[in-house]
Amino acid sequence: MGILGRPQGLFELHSSDLCVGSMLSKSDVVEILGVTESDIQSVPFKNWKGIEAIDERELQKLWYANSIPNSPPAKIGNASVSLDEMILVKLIRLAYPHASVEHQVPWGRRRVDLKISVDGVSKFVEFHGPSHFAPSRYNSSPEHPSIRKAEIENHFGIECVLWPYWIQRCISNVRAIFDNDVNGLGVLWSTNVHFGTFVFPDSAQVIESINNRFRAMRDGGCGYFYGPSTEERNNPEHPVINQIQQGKKSIELLLPRGHSNIEQWVPQYLVA
Length: 272
Fold this sequence. Notes:
Elements: E1 10-11, E2 23-25, H1 26-33, E3 46-48, E4 51-55, H2 56-64, E5 75-76, E6 79-80, H3 83-95, E7 100-107, E8 110-118, E9 121-128, H4 145-156, E10 160-164, H5 171-178, H6 203-213, H7 239-245, H8 268-271
Parallel strand pairs: 1-2, 9-10
Antiparallel strand pairs: 2-4, 3-4, 5-6, 7-8, 8-9
């Protein structure tokens, strides 16, 4: 089973708080990669509810294969750049047009994904995909996320914000990094890596800490992450919810190690 399930929903760069999904429109691809329409004429876009769009996984494969002329390098030094990082960079530019953004910042033999400076305040951001939390073919033994965060902060003296895959790629979450009055958003719509598969004994605390940094909890919980159409968004319901309702999968998949309250972790209609 892959890390991501079948694509669902359409992401929209200029409506990122409201529009969640795996599909990227042609116009957004042009902006995210900084290319022209002629550069992507060989990209196999398909009709997605009347919009020319492509599954982000397919786009990343083409980009990594150097099949998109004039696109930015997919590696900086020895570090691979993810499409998620490219989307975050664009969202940062939209949220803070005058921000300074450094990508893949050198750190000894390693690199930090992003350094963002806004009005004299700097933050590091590390994007963490599913393989940072559960074993996969990319990472058979994930390191506890607090270790790298602490190492970066101790080395640079600057806060390192962990941005995991369940924190929505949107402008509100960019602003939540710098503005304590902004509430962020969490969302899950296609991943096959659920909280219940995380390897850390304190997984619940890890997730809560990250959610609280973005102020992404609602009424003390994160059940709204799974949709559908929660927080006035166009976010599809995660397929695992229907599978749980039909008895095909266990609700335990959604419950991280160390949790103490089921209601905090699942949509209310699963436990009502």
